[in-house]
Inverse folding.
């Protein structure tokens, strides 16, 4: 498959809610774009408001479909300058089950680092990415949504110092033809990691930070922009699971002066997370970040590098007696499952995803004392997370999948084991 006439990349399904759906597309040049969509059951024909694309945002557009209804299937097409582009795609809105039926069983896909090779921008005698057929494997699994855990652009030094550089790199990352069917038919959610932000030591004071955020937002529609804090941290819910996507770059201060302590998440983001967790009634609260959350190994990219903040974060979870916590993390080039035995509370897990299409690596010197045996993964892979079971006995099953769709390893965690001790 190649991009349709007038389209550079896409379309891509963004966040989908019961009453609203987002569709992203990138055009070849300045254009007026719309989404024309049809309710597959009633036949009702609808359309989004038009959006004009321009070079300032790399000719990307996010279109809002605000006439959808819960639990319905829709077909959709892109319209450019008044003409329908060949190619029909489909999506399904979440069902309104609340107070009516038990929560539905569902599966999501989770992926790590993505690297697209571009001639002229690669180190000599090295091929740092490949295996793009993995996206077809993910699509065949028919997840309800896909979550990307950062390093989806892999900026090069050529990109760090200009808006054009950022937009070109994100455009390249979106270009593989193997990726297109997955993006068009499965809703996509993402956070970022180091290689989406800038130079390796870039933090909250990074000169080109605005370029990074503008490019990320242009290519990854977010469920909601949180006005209470800076950065790209966001939140969405699917069935009985709340997902919190953390920003590990915008608040980062891991080389402070004076009496300041190192921070990666920042005070305002941790406070936002605390309050959202208190509000959440979800069975599972999945916290995702572009860096390992529980891995204790001495590594600047881990949350544990900011020791005092990390201790405060774990203590916050204990103090608030938060149930159902489960962590997802990216930013690494191998996969593993970390389990932290919590004194006075329940064990918590951090599933770290290695690369989708970047090259896997073996970190021989990294001592993760909390890694669960048999979960180290040193090949390209993705995860399928199954949330299933009756309302009173929900469970989360992790399946780590090879690029060919074979199960590498799996583990199941019942919701009943993610409960704080009774007073």
């Amino acid at each position: 498959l190649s991009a349709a006439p007038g389209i550079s990349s896409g379309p891509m399904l963004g966040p989908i809610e019961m009453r609203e759906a987002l569709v992203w597309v990138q055009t070849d040049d300045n254009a007026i774009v719309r989404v024309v969509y049809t309710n597959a059951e009633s036949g009702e024909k609808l359309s989004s408001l038009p959006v004009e694309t321009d070079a300032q945002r790399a000719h990307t557009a996010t279109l809002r479909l605000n006439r959808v209804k819960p639990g319905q299937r829709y077909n959709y097409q892109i319209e450019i300058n008044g003409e329908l582009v060949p190619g029909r795609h489909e999506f399904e809105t979440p069902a309104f089950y609340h107070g009516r039926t038990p929560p539905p069983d569902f599966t999501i896909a989770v992926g790590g680092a993505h690297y697209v090779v571009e001639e002229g921008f690669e180190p000599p005698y090295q091929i740092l990415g490949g295996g793009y057929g993995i996206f077809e494997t993910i699509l065949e699994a028919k997840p309800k949504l896909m979550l990307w855990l950062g390093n989806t652009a892999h900026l090069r030094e050529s990109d760090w110092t200009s808006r054009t550089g950022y937009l070109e790199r994100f455009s390249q990352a979106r270009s593989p033809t193997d990726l297109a069917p997955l993006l068009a038919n499965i809703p996509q959610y993402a956070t970022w990691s180091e290689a989406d932000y800038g130079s390796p030591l870039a933090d909250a004071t990074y000169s080109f930070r605005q370029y990074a955020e503008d490019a990320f937002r242009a290519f990854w529609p977010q469920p909601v922009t949180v006005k209470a804090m800076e950065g790209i941290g966001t939140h969405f819910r699917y069935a009985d699971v709340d997902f919190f996507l953390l920003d590990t770059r915008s608040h980062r201060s891991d080389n402070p002066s004076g009496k300041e302590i190192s921070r990666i998440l920042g005070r305002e983001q941790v406070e936002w997370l605390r309050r959202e967790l208190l509000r959440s009634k979800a069975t599972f609260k999945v916290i995702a970040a572009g860096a390992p959350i529980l891995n204790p190994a001495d590594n600047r990219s881990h949350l544990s590098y900011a020791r005092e903040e990390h201790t405060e974060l774990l203590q916050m979870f204990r103090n608030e007696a938060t149930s159902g916590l489960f962590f997802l993390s990216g930013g690494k080039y191998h996969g593993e499952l970390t389990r932290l035995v919590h004194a006075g509370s329940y064990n918590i897990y951090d599933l770290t995803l290695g690369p989708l299409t970047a090259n896997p690596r073996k970190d021989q010197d990294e001592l993760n004392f909390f890694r669960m045996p048999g979960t180290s993964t040193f090949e390209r892979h993705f995860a399928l997370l199954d949330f299933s079971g009756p309302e009173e006995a929900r469970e989360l099953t992790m399946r780590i999948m090879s690029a060919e769709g074979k199960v590498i390893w799996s583990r199941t965690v019942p919701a009943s084991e993610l409960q704080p001790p009774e007073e």
Q: What stands out?
A: The CA atoms of residues 240 and 282 lie 5 Å apart. The chain has a mean pLDDT of 95. The first strand starts at residue 7 and ends at 16.
